[in-house]
Every structure is written in C-alpha cells, then in structure tokens.
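Section 5.1 Outputs to date
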Amino acid sequence: MPLKLSLKPGEKFVLNGAVVQNGDRRGTLILQNKASVLREKDIMQAEDVNSPARHIYFPVMMMYLDEGGATRYYDEFALRLNEFMNVIRNPAVLADCVAASRHIMAREYYKALMLCRKLVEYEDERLGNGASGLSAGGGAG
C-alpha cells in the first residue's frame, strides 16, 4: 500500500537514512514500496535525549532508521523501558510500554516508535513541560 506524504514548504524528513527537504511550495510524495520515513517532528537528536521516556524513544527511532543495525540499540531500549516501567503506575501507560516491546519483538519499529512518542507526551505532561515536542530543536539535519 503506497504511503502518501503531504509536505509543508521547507519541511525536512528522513527517507532510508537520507535527510530530504521539500522545496519552497507544498508538495506531495508517494512512496510505492516499504521505506523508513520520519518527519522532522518525529526526529530526535542525540543531544535532546534528556529524560527517561526520551531514553526509550531514541533507540527505537534508531532501530527504525537502521533496521539492519537494530540489535545495537535493543539493549539500551530494553534497559530504559524496564527502568521506566518500574516507576510508572498508570495502567494505560504500562500497557503502551508492553505493546511497544511487543512491536519491537515483531520488528514493527514504526508502531513501537509511535507508542514511545506517547510515553514522551505523558512524561512531558506529568513534568509540566508545556509543549510536548520531541526535541527543543525539533529538526533533521
């Protein structure tokens, strides 16, 4: 099934590891086969990994972007998820953690990543971090 991306002027995204930027007009991109694609808003830079949920999100993002090297990031993901789950009492958040782990085991990295995004948003909400963006800079580059 094709993936249709509607892009804002100047919007960046990662496509199979390459940073791509849209031109000066709105654009549409249709991908006809499987590819690893992350929009600028979903990309986290290493220097923005500054909280427990972000320590979970980042290795999952790396697994998604570098599926061939996913085993390099798995141990960090498992450690950080375990730490996070040991201090969380919210049943819905714990269910998201378990579901993310299941998606990782099934190599469904994008699905896991979107659940990890929810963990970051939950954490930001609990800590009172206003806008729940993934990074302060929020960009690919």
